[in-house]
Here is the input.
Amino acid sequence: SRPSALPPTRIEGKSGRQPYTKRMRQLFRLDAGRGSRDAAAFAWEPRGNYLAAGGEPGLVHIYDRHGDHVAEITGETTAPVKALAWDRDGDCLAIMQDREPTISLWDSQMKTVTKLDTALKDPSFFCWSKTSSQLVVGNKNGNILVYDRRTRKKVSVLGKHPKKITCGCWSAQTNKLALGSDDRTLTLSNESGDTLEQTELKHAPIDMQFATQKRDAASDDSETHLSINMGGKSLLLYDLKEPDNPLELAFSSKYGSIIAHTWFGDGLMLLGFSDGYVVVISTSMREIGQEQYSGQFHKKRLDSIAYSPALNYAAVAGDGGIKLVDLSTFKDLKKETVSDLDGSIAKVEWSPDGHVLCASTKRGQVATYLARMPLVHGACGDTVAYLSSLREITLVKSGTPEDDQNVIIPVGLEPSYLAVGPKHVGVGMNNAALFYDISTKEEVHKEEYNGRVSQMSISESHCAVLSGGRVTLHAIDGSRRRTFPDRDSGDDMGDKVTALALTKDVLVYGTKSGMVHFFAINPEGPLPGVELRHERAILKIVPNVKGTRFIVVDTSKNAYVYAPTTSDLTPIPSFPRDFTSVIWEVIDRHVFIVSSPSELHTYAYAPQTVRGAVVAKLGAVDVSETGGVTMRPKASPLHPQGLVPVCSHDGTITCQTSGGTLTKIQCPLYEHRDDDDATPELHFCQNLALLRLKDAWNAAIDINKRPYWLGPSG
Here is the structure.
C-alpha cells in the first residue's frame, strides 16, 4: 500500500485553540509531498468548503477549511500530482499527474474516481469551463482534448498548436476558449475546440485572463479583453472586439520580469515582478500606461501574488515569506507577515470568501492562514458572545476585568450568525442551527429551518428565527413550535416579516406592511391591546434589557422609541442613516447608543416630561447664570474606524473590531461622570445629561452655587 500524506499540523493555544489575534493565524499545515523537492498542487473548491492538495506519491487529500481530513484519492500511478482543478460547481475534481495521459476525475458526491483517457502524451495544461461541464486538456505537442463530463463526449483536436500548450482560460460569458503556446501564438476557439481567431505574439505566453477594461462611460460588465503575460517581459491587452489593435504594456526594467498579474476593483490590475516589486495600474484608456502605485515588498525575489476582494488585500509571496498589502492604502500590514514556511513559496491563493490564505512551498508543504475572522457577535445583558475561531464561540462579561470569566465553547459548524440568551447560545449557518448550554458547554439541540436564517434571538426558554419572510418560534429543545404570520392570531398571511426581537416574555416582529406584532410566550397568545401600525416597512427592532421599551427603525432609516404600556411612539432626532448598530445601555436603561462607521451617537429617553415622552441626543451641557440648562447634541468620533459596538455597560462599550477581536472603549458622555480628577461642574453636567438626577444633585451640592441647584428642576 502507498504511504499516506502526513496529517495536518494544527496550531494549538492554551485552551486547545489559539484565540484569534491580529496576526494572521495558521489554521493547519500539511506535507502533501512527503519531503518532495517539487511544489505541492492545491485547489480550493468553488464554495471554499474544501481544499484539495496533492504531491508525491500520486495521492490527493481533501481537507475541510479547518484541516479535518475528508477523503484520500489514489491517482492512476505513483507519479507526482502536477495540477488539480475543480469544476464550476465543486462536484468534480480533476487530477493531472506528471507524464500521465490519464486524468483522474473524483466525484465529490459519490466519492468515486473515473479515469479519463486523453490519449495525449505528457499533458501540460487543463482547465474547466466556467459555464458548462467541459474540461480542456492540452499537451506538450500542442494537441488538445475537450471532454464534456455531462454527456461524456470527447473531442480531440490534433495540431491545435505546433508546440507545448502553456496556459489558457475559458470566458465566463461566451464560453470561448483561449490557449497560449510555446510557439508564441494565441488561439481563440469555440466550446468544441474549433479555432475562431489566431494571433502571433512577441513572446511565449505564460498566463492569460479574461477581464473587463475600465470604461470612461457607463457600460455593462461584459468581458472586453484578454490580458496575456508574454514571457514575463510585457503584458498584452488583447481587445476582444478589436483583435487587430492589441495594446502592449511594458514596465521599468528595475522591476524585473512579470511573475503574475490579476484584475481587481474597477478595471485595475495588480502585477507582481521578480525583483520584489508590486505595481498597480488602471486600464482606463485615459490612464493607461500610468502607474497608480509601485513599491518593493521583497528584497530578493517575488514568487506569487493573490488578491482578496473581501478584504481588499494583496498577498505578496517572496523571500520565503508572505506579506499582506492593504490596497486601499498600499501599506504593508507588518503584523500579518508569514515567515514560518519551509522553503521558497510556489503559489499563494485566497479561499473563495477571501478570508483564508493558502500557500504551497517548493518542498511539498501546504499551509492555510486565517487573515480575518467573520464579524459574528451577539449580546444578552452584559454578556457578549463572538466568533473567536472558525468553530469556536467565546463569551465574555463586559462588566468584569479582562478574561476573568470568559467561557469558550467549541461548536460543530462554522457560524455565520449567532444569538446569546441568559442560559444558552445558538449558532448557525444557512438553515441549520445548533444550541449549547453555556454552563456545561454541551450541545442541547439541533434544528433545521425551512429557509436561510437572516436573524436569530434567544430568551431564557425560547428561540426565534427569521427565515424566508416568516418567524419560527420554539422552545430551546425544539418543542412548542409556532410560525408567524399566524392565521389564528389574525395576522395577514400575505405580509412578510422583516425584523424580530425576543424578550423574556414576548416575541415582537415587524412586517413589510409596517405592522409590529406582540405575542406573549406564556401563556401563548397575542398581547392584548398592544399593536403598532406604522406607515413604512420595519427594518430593525431593538428591545431594552427589561423588554419594556423598543427602538423601531423603518426602511426610510427613521427611528423611534416605542413604549407598549402607553403606546407612545417617540421620534429619535438626528438618527444616522448609515447606522451600523443600535444598543441599549445595561446600567442606565433609558440610555442607548447608535453607531455609524466613524461616529457614536448617544441618546437618552425620558418617558415623562412636561412635553410628554422625549428622546434627546446627548452632548455638552451648559448651565446659565439663571439655572437654565441647554444641551448641544453632538456625535463622538469612533476610533479606530470599523469598530462595531456590541454592548454598553456603565459607559464602557465592548466592540468587535474589523479583525474579529473584541476591544473596549469609553463612551465620551461617561468619561467624567466618576472621574475623581474631574471638576464637580463636569460631574454635574454629565450626570444631568444621563438623567442621573440624584448624582447630579449631589454634584450641585458640592458646587454650592444657585444655578446648579436650579438646573435639575428644568
Notes: The first strand starts at residue 9 and ends at 10. The CA atoms of residues 530 and 564 lie 6 Å apart. The radius of gyration is 31 Å.
